[in-house]
Specification:
By secondary structure, the chain is mostly helical. It has two domains: 12-73, Arc Repressor Mutant, subunit A (Orthogonal Bundle), CATH 1.10.10; 77-126, Penicillinase repressor fold (Orthogonal Bundle), CATH 1.10.4040. Helices cover 62% and strands 11% of the residues. Strands 1-3-2 form a three-stranded antiparallel sheet.
Length: 127
């Protein structure tokens, strides 16, 4: 699976659709709408537009299923999250992840559980 959909960024609205598809695929536009339209005050037309954009970007594939289409992601969620995380660190913290953690610590956004989990991850990385 490609890590970057045709080099184009996925908008927040498109990301919401991707989350549905990452959760279970393939799904129809109606299935996607059932999962998110009420919470976002969207219509089926909105979902179809977002799915069309994602197909054009190479992030989603379609397959015919009778008179409808089924959609499935072409990019893995882990690859997408990894790319977005790196872009965030590059853009806001000069490419230094330690600066991100320092900012979180200064703003007191880290709980004791967060710190314990990070310590555990660091120990694993050092092995």
């Amino acid at each position: 699976m490609p890590s970057d959909p045709a080099g184009e960024r996925i908008s927040d609205a498109e990301h919401a659709v991707m989350e549905v598809l990452w959760g279970q695929s393939p799904r129809s536009a109606a299935d996607v709408c059932d999962a998110i339209c009420t919470n976002r005050d969207w219509t089926i037309a909105t979902v179809k537009t977002l799915l069309s954009r994602l197909v054009a970007k190479g992030a989603v594939a379609t397959e015919p299923d009778g008179r409808r289409f089924l959609y499935r992601p072409l990019i893995a969620r882990s690859a997408y999250v990894g790319g977005e995380s790196q872009r965030l660190v590059d853009r806001l913290f000069g490419g230094r992840p330690s600066s991100l953690f320092a900012q979180l610590a200064q703003s007191e956004a880290l709980t004791e559980d967060d710190l314990a989990e990070m310590e555990s991850l660091l120990k694993e990385l050092r092995r």
